[in-house]
Amino acid sequence: MRLDKYLSDCRAALRSETKELVKQGRITIDGIRAAKSSDKVSEASIVRIDGLRVEYKKYIYLMMNKPQGYVSATYDKNKPVVIDLLDEEYKRFEPFPAGRLDIDTEGLLILSNDGDFAHRLTSPKKNVYKRYFARLDFPAEKSAVGIFGGGMDLGDFTAKPAKLEICDDPREVFVEICEGKFHQVKRMFEKVGRKVVYLKRVKIGGLRLDDTLAPGEVRELSEAECEMFFR
Ligand code: URA
After folding, report:
1. Per-residue pLDDT for 124 more than 90?
2. % residues pLDDT > 90 (the chain)
3. Rounded-to-integer distance, Cα 166 and Cα 145, Å
4. Distance CA 208, CA 201 (A)
5. What end-to-end distance do the CA atoms of the chain give, in Å?
6. How many angstroms is it from 106 CA to the middle of ligand 1?
């Protein structure tokens, strides 16, 4: 690819800025001063600006422990959005949330600028299960396990079979669904006469929320972790 594309993919310099940097002799490719912004480079090239290495990175994959009070969106007219919680070094990649959590839901939220990846993660057809911890207003009945497992008619759609586990304190449950319809978990509990008073997503596919992340904290995911969603 061209040098100016490499640097714009990395959000290190706009194409017009690359031209100027090259003119000023501030860019090297594998130790040799770049001559033109159209110079050819590969992902493996060692590109430096003012001696500092710019590693090739086009996509970003972030794990957030979403706090309550934030909308899962890139913009909202009235309320804070999860993007507000990101440092500038992440924001410049223009990530968006892959799937949504309600404003009062906490926990595992993935943000990326890779549309294909976000689609794989959220499409119900891909059967990526999302695991939630919920606290209910009243104890769950054992019979709810079968009702959740049978696929529930929620009026506008029928939910695919969901796994429900009731904890020792039956007001606490874990539920796994592979869709992400609006208020789905809350609506499923309403169907069995319970109100969700607290909801947290704890796992997507094979990847758990990193419990060292405090609410509002974010970290990058490794390539191996990105694959774990689909295991
Ligand atoms: N189901 C809900 O009801 N809310 C969420 O935020 C996620 C799943």
Report:
1. no
2. 94
3. 8
4. 9
5. 33
6. 9
Residue 49, Cα to own-chain centre: how many angstroms? 30
DSSP, residue by residue, 73-119? SS--SSS-BGGGGS-HHHHTT--EESS---TT-EEEEEEES-HHHHH
Of 68, 72, 105, 122, best ligand 1 pocket probe by most atoms within 8 Å of the beta carbon:
105
Short-list 139, 137, 181, 182, CA closest to 164? 139
Q: Residue written as tokens 């319970």? A: 194
pLDDT at 48: 97
Ligand 1 mutation target, pool 65, 102, 176, 198, most atoms within 8 A of CB:
102
What's the chain's Rg over C-alpha atoms? 22
Q: Could you write out the DSSP letters of every residue in 115-156?
A: HHHHHHHH-GGGT--EEEEEEESSPPPTHHHHHHHT--B-SS
Ligand 1 centroid distance, CA of 185 (Å): 5
Neighbours of 111 (CB within 10 A): 26
Report the amino acid identity of residue 183: H
Strands 163-166, 106-112: pairing kind:
unpaired
Distance in angstroms (rounded) separating the CA atoms of residues 155 and 175: 20
Q: For residue range 143-193, list pLDDT tens digits in order.
A: 999 999 999 999 999 999 999 999 999 999 999 999 989 999 999 999 999
